[in-house]
Amino acid sequence: MSGLIEALASVVGQDGCLSRPEELLVYECDALTLHAAKPTAVVFPRSTDDVVRIVEACRRFGTPFVPRGAGTGLSGGATANEGAVVVECSRMNRILELNAEDRYAVVEPGVVNADLSKAALPSGLFYAPDPSSQLACTIGGNVAENSGGPHTLKYGATTNHVLALELVLPSGAVVQLGSATGWTVGYDWVGAVVGSEGTLGIVTQATLRLEPIPEGVETLLGIFADVVAACRTVSGIIQSGLVPAALEVIDRRTIAAVEASVYAAGLPLDAGAVLIVELDGPAPALPAQVERVRGIAAREGATRVEVARDDAERQRFWRARKGAFGAMGRMAPDLYVHDAVVPRARLPEVIEKVCAIGDRYGLKLSNVFHAGDGNLHPNISFDRRDSDELERVIAAGAEILETCVEAGGVISGEHGIGSEKRDYMGLLFSEADLDAMKRLRTVFDPDGVCNPGKIFPTTRFCVESNPRARGYDRVPLES
Amino acid sequence: MDPARQSSTERWREILERSLDCVHCGLCLPTCPTYRETGREISSPRGRIYLLRGVAEGRIPLAAAVAEEAYLCLGCRACETACPSGVRFGSMLELSRAEVEVAQLRSGWARRLEGWALRSLVPHRRRLRLLFDLLAAVQRLRLDRLARPLLPRRLRELHALLPPIPPKRDRRPPPEIVPARGERRGRVGLLTGCIAAEAFGHVNRATLRVLARNGFEVVVPRDQGCCGALHAHGGDPETASELARRNVAAFGRADVEAIVVNSAGCGAAMREANAWIGSEAEAFAAKVRDVSEFLDAAGLQPPGGRFEARVCYDDPCHLVHGQGVAEAPRNLLRQIPGLKLEPHDDPAGCCGAAGIYNLTHREMSNAVLDRKLRALAAADPDVIATGNPGCLMQLRAGAARFKLRARVVHPIELLDAAYGPDA
Question: What is the ipTM of this complex?
Answer without folding.
Answer: 0.93
